[in-house]
Design brief:
The chain is an alpha+beta fold. The protein has one domain. 28% of the residues lie in helices and 21% in strands. It has 5 helices and 9 strands; from the N terminus they run ββαβαβαββαβββα. Strands 3, 4, 5, 6, 7, 8 and 9 form a 7-stranded mixed beta sheet that branches. A hairpin with a 6-residue loop joins β7 and β8.
């Protein structure tokens, strides 16, 4: 999996890769500004759902929100996932204070909608782009918004591994020497792996 390290507007990449990566750097900058604006309106842990929507952090009913118009590029033809939604009840055991296992969407929607959302979340991980994790029960007007990084995914188990941070940071490789392959009952082990990652900055 390729990793792009973006720091102070500079990108470590080969010249032939520069065009695609510059758009990724712009998207990271855009999300940094969105995070700052959300913080300026109060605690992200107690954000009004209407504010989250008006800022473009989350929209619609999908679990994975990708905003294709803003995030599509040659580096990510299906866009880069902007946020993922977790209502706190579905797959509740897959959520911890430090990270989460996020299940691939498997719906009856027409076309390749599910596939495009999955690819957009993979693009966030492959390009080290942070996404917003939007927590809160259905029907609530309050959202708990966190910064997350897709650090791995497993197509066999249809799961993303997302770790939380306090802020948008220069990301390390989303993959390390530990293979990410899940079987039923592995949830606790993987969440422990999230908590044990070096340089991990837990949000709470």
């Amino acid at each position: 999996m390729p990793v792009w390290v973006v720091s102070q507007g500079l990108c470590e990449c080969q010249p032939e890769e520069m065009h695609a990566i510059s758009s990724v750097a712009d998207e990271i900058d855009r999300r940094t500004r969105l995070w700052a604006e959300l913080n300026s309106k109060g605690s992200p842990a107690n954000a009004a759902a209407s504010v989250v929507k008006s800022l473009g952090i989350y929209g619609g009913q999908a679990g994975i929100y990708r905003d294709v118009t803003a995030t599509q590029s040659s580096a990510a033809p299906d866009g880069i996932a902007v946020s993922v939604r977790h209502n706190g009840t579905s797959y509740a055991d897959d959520l911890s204070e430090d990270g989460m296992l996020y299940h691939y969407p498997l719906t009856a929607r027409s076309g390749r909608t599910d596939k495009a959302e999955i690819e957009s979340a993979k693009a966030a991980g492959k390009n080290a782009v942070p996404l917003f994790v939007v927590l809160g029960p259905k029907g609530s007007k309050i959202r708990d918004v966190r910064i997350g990084y897709v650090v791995d995914f497993d197509d066999r188990s249809k799961l993303f591994l997302i770790t939380f941070t306090n802020e948008i940071v220069v990301a390390e490789s989303p993959r390390d020497s530990q293979p990410f392959e899940l079987t039923s009952g592995d949830t606790a082990r993987v969440l422990q792996m999230v908590q044990a990652r070096p340089n991990h900055n837990a949000s709470r």
